[in-house]
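Async update (no meeting this week)

Hi team, since we skipped the sync, here's where things stand on the single-chain job. The sequence we agreed to prioritize is pasted below, unchanged from the tracker. I ran it this morning and attached the output directly underneath so nobody has to dig for it. Comments welcome in thread, and please keep replies under the output.
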Amino acid sequence: MFRLAASYKLLGGVFLAGVLTEAAYTVAAPLSLKFMVDGAFLQKNVHMFVLILTLLIIGGALNVCANLAGDYAIGRLSASIVRKLRVDLYTHIQRLPLSFYQRYRIGDLMTRFADDLHAVERTVRLLSPYFLRETFSVAIGLVLLFSLEWKLTVAVLAASALMFLSPRLLARRAENANLSYKEAQERFANTIDETLKGHRTIRGLHQERRFQEKAREQINELFTFGVKLQSVNALMERVPLTVLLLLNGIMIGYGGSLIFQDELSVGGFMAFFTLFLNVGQSATNLSTIIPAIIESGVSYRRVREVFDEPVLDEPVQPKGMPAVLQRLRLDSVSFGYGEDALQLHDVTVTIPGGTYAAFVGPSGSGKSTALQLLARFYKPKEGAVTLNDIDLFEIDEASFRGATALVSQDAFFFHGTVRDNLVLDRTGLTEEEIGEAAAQANIHDVILRWPNGYDAAIHGNGASLSGGERQRLSIARALLRSPKLLLLDEITAALDPASEAEIHALVQRLRPDRTIVSVTHRLDSVVDADCIHVFDRGRVVESGTHDELLQLKGLYSKLWEKQHGFRLSDDGLHAEVEAERLSRISFFEGIDTSLLHHIAGLFATEVFQANDLVVREGDEGNKFYIIVRGQVEVLKRTPGGGEARVATLQDGDHFGEIALLRGIPRTATIRATRRSVLLSARRETFRQLIEGYPQVLASLERTLEQRM
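Output:
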């Protein structure tokens, strides 16, 4: 606290002067009893009485003035210190790399901003004046006690060692109890955050009971640690009070013997006794605030943990963003989010300025990670990411961000109006410029039809907007920044075919005068790209135009075939599969085309929103699914009662073929991670169709046995 207050010397000086004056008056006032009794009352000296009384009144008035000045100073001082802490902490977390946010959860940071900073504020605002005043009172009081009767003072000090020894012995236990309680608060805050954000998933997966049990355990944990903390704190407060009672007995007994031996006057004893009570009370007060000081110490260390997180290194002499983007390059880049695994291995990609490049590949292939590096969110572990042969981290970040825009599938919208979310920090924009950007993104006319138009409020991160509206708004926001480099991350992943076609046409119109890099698993949306880079297991395995890659008959060609052979309505609510597409599924290989036409007619369309449950582990399996559009995750139960993701499936993937022949329980839970359109075939209908084809049923059984 003293280190934080060093920048406010004037306020600190006024505060210390006020506290010192208050402590001096509080301690010195009892000393007047000696002169009042011995020099005025026993001697019947009126002049002495008036003099002492006048001095007390003048000292009291000065004390009141000093108190008011000190209170004002500590109010300003504490507010300034806490304000600086909050601003510095908020500014610091914005400069931290994304890896920090992967290690710290929302509950971890919220408890530091709320509970921990509140504990520090309470120490600065309330405990520090209290602590200093009582410390000065004890120090000045001891000096005066020695001046009154040194032998009695030595006896009292010897016995009072217990008063300060006991809290010190308990300090470690109190610190551990405080830390345990705060960590329990963090865990419960994270559970609340997870429950509120994932309520649909919790309900869809029927996990209410598990989360109730988890919350109950954490609440019981808070109860246990809270009782333990209260017990330790109470013990730290009670021991000094008990010692003070013992000291009273010692002081009265020994002081009385000194009076009988004429070594101490009655007035001196009264002054000593009153002064001792004041000093004893101050010492007791010091011991009672030790638990609060320990708590604030733990809180400040937790805040310092965040301050100690290293920020992204800024170049000593940063370079400005080049006026013309000539080329963007990943040069022998290797990168991993953790220390144990790499998501990219020796990736080299060159993107000429003014071109449209696409990163495609299976889920987990590293394409999105490569885009994160181009967006300067991470530093590669090996190699370099350069712009015009300049390392991205040598370019001034503000100028780089000003010339770059990232549009992702999970576009974030701030609480405010549509205009606020489009303009952000861009001042001086006219209504015509805003409308023009919105018109380019095909959202202007839609906004005008909304109540209040551009002044319409956006709540809940745009929960009331459709997927297409969200993407077009985020693109309009990007266009208002006039980016030289436009980065697109799966922006059509959750859209219906009609909206996807609109966004695709919009990207084509944006191509002139800017460099575009698009990450997608939907190959239809990048057939017009100047160059398509195909990622697989963290490496670039193919590069070229759409036609060139199809001729290679490699991974891109396989992905293209997997995603085609379906017919999907413009609204994305009805899908069909072609017989030829079914023949490419190993389960249906070798089946006559005429029968495949019948099987294709068995499929029904099912649409799932993000976090909706498709199948649950343990339920009876009675359907086979093909993913026409979307993405699902495969979850397996863990021994601890939770769930772990073991795979991600996307367009063209299928699951549940065992269910067509055998009604065994589902071996995994399948949950949609974005809006998904699936085709499903029921076991009963399928078996009825193929019962007339014994050879087909036998073939399917053999294929199933091989897969199991």
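Quick observations from my side:
The radius of gyration is 37 Å.
The first helix runs from residue 2 to 5.
Reply here if anything looks off.
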